[in-house]
């Protein structure tokens, strides 16, 4: 398990575990409706997306939207506006469903027909660390190919951070003897 | 059948064989006698000081096309400063130039040592227009004419013509789009059309052969695929311009010193507020009209609309931050870094020059990019003193270099120049699409997933605006009246602009887009 870097931050280094950075970057790759949920346009687009398939209703259930079909219809017909709590739940449900729906496409794009995707690793921020205690770290990059992307995306969608942690461990193990310094990072960058 | 390379080697040998350059020591003596520093010579020959040094200590020999230019210069100097007279040659003789002599005379100078400028007239030596005067006659400075083959200099141009003639029979074997830099000092050309002038200097030696070959291959492939239909081939090439530009960039970075990062974490200021919204960076796009000039009334005056060629291509030469930007709350100014600066701009009090930060309505500090801040620093310096220095409050910067895109830029510039010379609209459009789309998709774009550097996009754009601004200053200093400055490449001036800017389609040249009049009765 990554994290042999004990007592992270003891001398002032700033960063996040690699698994979190991976998940954040995957989050950033999901695009969708850009209008905020508290605008008419954003709300209506989300409701339409959520009511277009049975998966949408499941997503609303998971997000805790327990309203009668009548209310839902009134929202859709723009006769009534959801309260603040429900607006937040609608937004959550939308992004939850959106993430699930892009999974297959995301995997395909990240694997890129076997060419894989280059991942850039940005080391921890050491500006707060005294010079003698600083590690000599540079941004690194590795190209990940094949099933690792399937595993990563599956772990991310199910919120399985243990698996993400293992995947990150494998990734940095491929760097060199200094791999442990990359257990924590400021960010991980890739695109698909 | 001899191979291409053999033939080119043979032609090279012909070129190298005659005529002989003076010995390296003599070259140095001549240059010193003429009082021209190595750096100045290097600049004139578009090479580096180190190369000139090497020529003068025998470590290397100049190669065409510079060889011809250098030879001509040395011959000119040799006529002026013969070897035996070198001891008393410190004062140049006063009356060397008869109107037909190929010997360059010293330029006429004002009282303050600046060269006298007049209307452009054909140079005595090369026939190309020049504003400079020597002994009252039009002549390029120190005889450093742009080397355009002409009958005036028999020795140099004759050898070129012979070489040109020698290549012609082999032309059927040479694909037309063969990158001219490959092995040939002189590119094969369509017979009859451009052959006599083809020894004009081509800067392709500086460009990477592999990159030029890649561009030519893509064009040839698409032309072949569409059976020579230029319109379809162009459309197909423009469509694949983004991935091709990225592949070209990748290829240009092979063996380079720095590895840039494509997906660094971004500071909030360059994150877009929404998909179509803008971030907080002010690119200083010029949008200015000279308010001193009235559209009607007064004297009627002709305004020329000038167009800067390949503005974004030229702007790829700029200081780009290599790694992720780091926050610097102190606001110190370091020329070795580049990035974004929160700046309170200085007040601008020149009615006849646009404000270098563009027309910003809101007061207070704003996020400027590195090229704009560099420009403000320069304008506030002792030499120009046009404004107060900018006040930097904080910055997001990283160590920078000008060389990340340099090979990429040079290859595109050479390909563009060749396409213009060869009258090849397909390659020209393709190259144009590559650099313009590269710049516009560098940031958070859905059409380019291979890089996400919005700050680079802002910096390159600002560099283009800065370049335009400096051209405006140059025109202003030369006595032209600025009327308007807009967009990336548009400058409206009153006056004889041809004495200020060379006319043409190269990047260093400008072209006239339009003409209109202001003032007078309506």
Shape of chain A: elongated
What is Rg of chain A? 21 Å
Distance between the termini of chain A: 27 Å
Tell me the helix content of chain A.
40-55%
Instruction: Assign a percent range to the helix content of chain B.
Output: 25-40%
* Biggest sheet: strand arrangement of chain A: 1-4-2-3
Largest interface, with counts of residues having CB < 8 Å to the other chain, equals: A-B, 14 and 15 residues
The tally of strands of chain A reads 4
* Unreliable sequence segments of chain A: none
The largest pleated sheet of chain B is described as: 6 strands, mixed
Strand portion of chain A: 5-15%
- Subunit arrangement of the protein: heterodimer
Largest sheet composition of chain A: 4 strands, antiparallel
- SSE topology string of chain A: EHHHHHEEHHE
Helix/strand/pairing category of chain B: alpha+beta
Rounded to an integer, what's the Rg of chain B over CA atoms?
25 Å
The sequence of SSEs of chain B as H and E is: HHHHHEEEHHHHEEEHEEEEHEHHHEEE
In DSSP terms (H or I, runs of 4 or more residues), the helix count of chain B works out at: 14
Distance between the termini of chain B: 72 Å
Topology:
The complex is a heterodimer of chains A (192) and B (522).
Chain A: E1 16-17, H1 18-29, H2 40-50, H3 54-62, H4 69-76, H5 84-111, E2 117-123, E3 140-144, H6 147-158, H7 161-173, E4 184-189
Antiparallel strand pairs in A: 1-4, 2-3, 2-4
Helix pairs in contact in A: 1-7, 2-5, 3-5, 5-6, 6-7
Chain B: H1 4-17, H2 24-34, H3 38-44, H4 49-56, H5 66-80, E1 117-122, E2 129-134, E3 137-138, H6 154-167, H7 209-225, H8 230-239, H9 241-252, E4 281-282, E5 287-289, E6 297-308, H10 311-314, E7 320-321, E8 326-328, E9 337-344, E10 366-369, H11 370-379, E11 391-401, H12 406-421, H13 425-440, H14 454-477, E12 481-486, E13 490-494, E14 510-520
Parallel strand pairs in B: 4-10
Antiparallel strand pairs in B: 1-2, 2-3, 5-12, 6-13, 6-14, 7-11, 8-11, 9-10, 9-11, 12-13
Helix pairs in contact in B: 1-6, 3-4, 7-8, 7-12, 8-13, 9-13, 11-14, 12-13
